[in-house]
Design a protein that fits this description.
Distance between the termini: 58 Å
Oligomer: single chain
Order of helices and strands: HEHHEHHEHHEHEHHEEHH
CATH class: Alpha Beta
Number of domains: 1
Strand content: 15-25%
CATH superfamily: SGNH hydrolase
Number of helices: 12
Largest sheet: 5 strands, parallel
Shape: globular
Number of strands: 7
Structural class: alpha/beta
Radius of gyration: 18 Å
């Protein structure tokens, strides 16, 4: 990543930082459009959510696919389910809107290092979202670069939480893992080996759209842009056409297989099974 690209990436992340919390108001599209009633989605998370403005990417993809999605978010760097719960601002954000779905993301290492805490604190959020009459959707994140085995624990923890609380899962991490196996030259991480590149966020947005709308993102544009003033257009990402088609197809395949294979139930059952004892030596 060149210095110029780093500056652009940081600037885009800062557009979404709480405090300024310009959120979606900066990006409102008065033209609207799409099918049916507007579907409102709140994203609660941290930098994995606000880098490259993932919620807005999802909204743009949805519009391209003929869906009226309106996204908003509350995200702070390094935040976890627990810190959001204790800080109260996220709860106020949830209480202050009429949401159809709420996407919940824990701090990236918590499901690996403290899975019981993720399940306990995430369960509070799932319950609260349900009380609002919205769909709780868990944002399954990805493994750090060079640590592919981390994905298994991420998947297990988010599936256990979903099974316990009756939530859905957006299997973003599984889509990342597949892409990195099939096309290892595609760069999904930034140089810190943790946060998403624009390509990584684009893949995450495709998985989110597929999960929220139960529809394929195939055919959406690779370049996602929005007018932020009458004379200024902001570019969120530019993904080559062939790469965009591949990521869209992969996102839909992973989401479809995740549901068809009943991965939530299988992973929860596997985690609950007693560990096998080693056979005695003959």
């Amino acid at each position: 990543m060149t210095p110029a690209h780093q500056v652009a990436w940081l600037a885009l992340c800062l557009l979404a930082l709480p405090g300024s919390l310009r959120g979606q108001d900066l990006f409102d599209d008065p033209a609207g459009g799409g099918k049916g009633k507007e579907f409102k989605v709140l994203f609660l998370g941290n930098s994995y959510t606000y880098c490259n403005h993932l919620p807005r990417m999802v909204q743009i993809i949805a519009k391209a696919q003929g869906r009226r999605l309106k996204t908003d978010m509350h995200a702070t760097g390094g935040a976890s389910f627990g810190s959001h719960w204790q800080g109260k601002k996220a709860l106020a954000k949830l209480a202050g809107g009429e949401w159809n779905a709420v996407v919940l993301q824990d701090q990236s290492m918590m499901p690996v290092m403290a899975p019981a805490q993720t399940i306990r604190q995430g369960g509070l959020w799932v319950e609260q979202v349900k009380k609002k009459g919205a769909r709780p959707i868990l944002f399954m994140t990805w493994a750090r670069q060079g640590q592919p085995k981390m994905q298994e624990k991420l998947t297990e923890t988010y599936c256990r939480l979903a099974h316990a609380g009756g939530a859905e899962v957006a299997p973003v991490g599984l889509a990342w893992a597949r892409v990195l196996r099939e096309k290892p030259k595609l760069v999904l991480h930034t140089k810190d080996r943790s946060h998403p590149s624009q390509l990584g966020s684009y893949l995450a947005a495709c998985v989110m759209f597929a999960t929220i709308c139960n529809a394929s993102p195939e055919g959406a544009p690779g370049e996602l842009t929005a007018m932020i003033s009458p004379t200024r257009r902001l570019v969120f990402c530019r993904v080559p056409v062939a790469t965009a088609r591949y990521l869209q197809k992969t996102a839909w395949a992973v989401v479809s297989e995740f549901r068809k294979n009943k991965t939530i139930e299988k992973m929860a059952k596997k985690a609950a099974a007693p560990a096998k004892r080693p056979s005695p030596r003959q």
